[in-house]
Amino acid sequence: MTLPPFPSELSAALTVRAFGRALAEFACKTVRAHGVQVWAVVGGSLVAVGEEGRGLGLSDGTVAARALAQGQPVAEGMLACLPFGGGVLEFVGADPEGVEALSGLTPLLTLALEGVQAREVRRGRGRVAETVEQLVRRLGGSLNLPEVLTATAESAALALGFGRAFVGLFSEVGEAGARTGEVFTHGFDEAFTGGIAVGPVSFGQLVERGEVILYERTRDAGTPLAAGLAELDPEVALIAPLSARGRPLGVLYVDSRSPGARASEDDTWLVLALAEQASLAIDNARLYSTETRKREAAEALREAGAALAGSLHLRDTLSRLLERATALFGTDAAGVYELQPDGRTLTIRNAVGLPNDYVLRVRAKVGAGVTGRAVERREIVVAHDLTREHLGGGSRYTRQLLAQGRYPYRGVVGLPLGTRAGVFGALTLYWKDPLPLGEDDLALTEVFAAQASLAIENARLYEEELRREREAAVLLNVGRLLGEDQSDPALAEAARLATLALNAGRGLIALMGEDGQMTRCATFNLHAPGPSELASLLAQLGRGPRPLTRRHALPVAGSALIVPLRGDPGGDGPDHLLGFLYADDPGTEAPSDRVLGLARSVADQMALTLTRERLLSALARQEARYRQLAEGAHDLILSADPAGTITYANPAATRLLEPLTGPLIGANLLTLPTPATRGALHAAWDAVNTHAAGGRTEIEIGPYRLEVRLSAMRQAGVPQSVLAVARDLSELQTLAAEIQRRGQALEAATSRQSELRSYLTLFTQAQEEERRRISRELHDDTAQVLIATSRRVARLARDLDGPQRARADDILGDLNAAIESVRRFARNLRPSVLDDLGLLPALEWLAGQAQTETRLEVSGSERRLAPALELTVFRLAQEALTNVDKHARARSAAIRVAFEEGGVRVAITDDGQGFTTDQAQARAQAGHLGLIGLRERVTLAGGELGVESEPGRGTRLTFTLPG
User: Fold this and answer.
1) Closest alpha carbon to 565 in 478, 660, 670
2) Using one digit for the tens of pLDDT, what is the confidence trace for 834-885?
3) Is 310-358+365-465's fold the same as 834-962's?
4) What are the C-alpha distances in Å from 747 to residues 425, 740, 939?
5) What is the topology classification, in CATH, of domain 8-120?
6) Which of 56, 47, 63, 53 has the alpha carbon at shortest distance from 26?
7) Against a cut of 0.85, is the pTM above it?
C-alpha cells in the first residue's frame, strides 16, 4: 500500500485538541477503520484529544498507554495502537495494511504534534500570565470575599472579550449535584435569586475531573447542557470549577450572546487559570472571614455570657438568652421550651418572633420533632429544611401545620439546655428560609447553649434560694401571727402575707366551723365574697393546691389558685377540712409549680397553727367535760401523787368516805382502808407503779366493801400520778340479783311463748286435719247421698205428669244446687287438687276462684315442696286473696311464686285502694285480723312477711319461707 500524503492542516493546527480532531479524521479514512481515537500527553497524563467513527467504547486507554510505554505498535483484539512521539493513534477494526502504511508517517506526526504544543505553550503562557497578573493587581490582596468574587467575574468577562460572567459559591453539595448560594455577576441585567443548580454530570466533570465545560449553541443544541442553560440563552459559554485544598468551592461562568461567537482552546486555558487564581483568593478570603467570624463569635459569646450572667432571675435570663440568640445567629424566631414535671411534655416558657397561637397551642413531646429529639438525645438536632427532611412535628399542632403546608419555618435547630438537676428544656432557633448556618456556626450554637445552660442553672439556684428564704419567712410570720392571735385582724394580716408571698394581687382565707359551715372569711385587696361565691370556690377544692381557670375564679381575676387547709382538730382524721386559702391575679399566666408548692407550704403552716389552737381549745373543753363526768359519776374517783397523797376526790367519794375518814384532800390513800385489807391495797399500788398494767383489788372501809382499780399516768415511763376508781360492790350485788330475777322471768316468758307457738302449730295441723276429714265426709257421704236422691227424684219425675212433674223438677233443681254447694264447700275446706297435683295447680285453681281477676306468675326452677309448706303457702295465698276481694276494691291481682335456693318467695299484689299503717291498726282494733293472722302463720312456718302499701297505689304482700 502506498504512503498517503501528509495533510497540511495537521501542521497548521493551533491547539493539541484541534490537531487530534484533524488527525483522527485523516487516519480513519486512510486505514478504513470503524473508529479512531488520538491520545496525547497533556500535563503529564495521557488524554484523548480527538476521535472519529464508532466502537470507541472498547477502549479505556490501557492498550494506548502500553503502546506509548513500549514505543512500538500493539494489537489486542479489535484494537490496534500506533505510537508517535508524545501521542498514540488507536484504531478499532482497522485494515492492518493501512495501519502499516500509516506507520511511515509517524516521524511527521511527531514533529507536527511538537510544533502544535510549542505554539500553544507560547501563546497560552503570555495571555494567561497577563490576565492572571491583571486579576492579582485588581484584587490587591483583598480579603473581602464579595469584592474577590465580583473582581473575578469582571476579569473573566473582559479577558475573554465576552459580555457576561458570574461567580457562585456552593451552599449545598450532595449526590444530586450542588447548588450555589448568592451569585456575583458582571454584565447581567438582573440579579440572580435562589442560586444556580449544578447537575450531577456537570458536577462530576467540573469538580471530580477538574475540567472546563465548553458550550456552543450550534454544536450542543438539544443536549441536557443546553436545556440547563436555556434560561441564560448563551451563544457560547465556558464553566470552570473553583476549588482549593481539594475542596470544591463553586463555579466560574463566562458566556457571550453575540451571534457567531466562539471559544478557542486558549480561552479554555485562560478561564481555568483565572479560576485557579480566583480559588486561591476566595479560599484566603473565606479563611480570613472564618477567622474573623470566629473572633467576632468569641467576642459575641463573651458578651452573651456576660449578659446572661448579669441576671440571676430566670425570667430575665431567658429574655436575654433569646435576645442574644436572635442577634448572634440571625434567626427569625426563637423559643425556650421547658420540660414539664411529667417528663414527657415540653411547653414554650419564653419566645421571640413566634406567633401567639403557636406559643399557646404547641405542646411538644420528648422524642418527637426537632425540639423533642434534642431533649431526648441531649445533643443538637438540625433540620436544614424541615419541609423536606421529614423530621415531623413535636406536637399535634405543628404536625397539622406541616401536613397543610402552612408551617412558617424551614430551617430549625434544637439545642438541649441541661442543668445539674437534669434537662431544663431546649433552645429552638427558627428560620423562614433553609438553614443558613454552616458547621462552624452550628458548633457556635452548641457553645452558646452551654453558656445558656450555665446561666439557667445559676438563675434557678438563686431563685430556689430566694424562694426558700421567702417561704421560710412567710411560714415563720404566718405561724407566729396566728399562734399569738386568731382574731379577724390577725387573720386578715395572714391573708395579706400569703397573697404577697404568692405574687398575687388579691387573696382570702376562709375558715369552717366544726359543723362544716363557713364561719369566718378574711380578705386582702378583695371585697368579702358572698355565700354563693364561697360555695363555688369550696366546690373547686381538691387534695392539694390547684390552679383555677377564669371561669372558676372570682370576678375580674385572670388566673387564680386555691389550696385546702386540712388538719385534725376534732379527731376526724388528717383529712378534716378547716377551710381554704385563695389568691388571684389579673394576669392570665397560670401559677407555676413553684408557686403551687409555696401555697401548699403556707397552707400546711396555717393548718398546723389553726389545728394546734383548736386542739388546745378542744382539750380545755374535753377537760371540762371529763371533770363534769367525774363530778356526776356514781363511782368513787380519787387522784394521788406517787407518794399516795390524795390530790382530788369527786363528790361521790367525798359523800361516802369523808364521814368515815375525815377530809380526803391531803390524806394518804394507803392509810384509808381498815387494817384487814391494807395489804391488798399496798400490793395493787406496788404493781401499778412497777408495771405498765393497772392494779385491781377489793378493800373494806367501814361497812362498805369497795372494788378498786388503780392506773398510773406515766411520762417517759415514770409514774406522775395514780388514778383510783372504786365501786361499792353492795350495789352491784343488788343489781346482779335483780338482773337474775328478771332473766328468770324472761326465760319463763320465752318458754310460755314457745309453748304457745307449739300449741298454735299443733292447733293449725289439727284444724287442717279436721278440714280434710269434713271435706272428705261431705264429698264421700253427703254429696253421694244427695246425688242418689237426685237420681231417684229424676226417675220419679219421669213417671209423673202435669203439675206433679213440674214440682218434681223443682225439687231436682234444688238437689243439684245443694250438691254443687256441698262440693264447693268441700273444695274450699280442702281442695283435692292440692293433694293430688301440688301447689302450683292449686294456686291456679285459687286464682280462678277469686272474685278479683287474678293471674299466676312463676319464676325459678319449679319443684314440689314439703306437704306442710305447700299447705302453708296455699292458705296464705287464699287468705290474702280473700282480703283483696273484701277490702281492696282492686281491678286485678297477681300471685307471683319465685322458687329460690333454700326456699320459696310468694308475692300477692293488687292495684286496689291500699292503706296506711294507722288504717291497718284501726281495722285490727275493729276485729279485722287478716294481716295479724297472716303474720302469725308465716312466723309459725319460720318465714318473714313483708307489707308494702300506699293509699291509691295498691298493696304488696311478700311471704318468704324456707324449704
Assistant:
1) 478
2) 777 888 888 888 888 888 999 999 998 888 888 878 888 888 888 888 888 8
3) no
4) 83, 10, 20
5) Beta-Lactamase (3.30.450)
6) 53
7) no
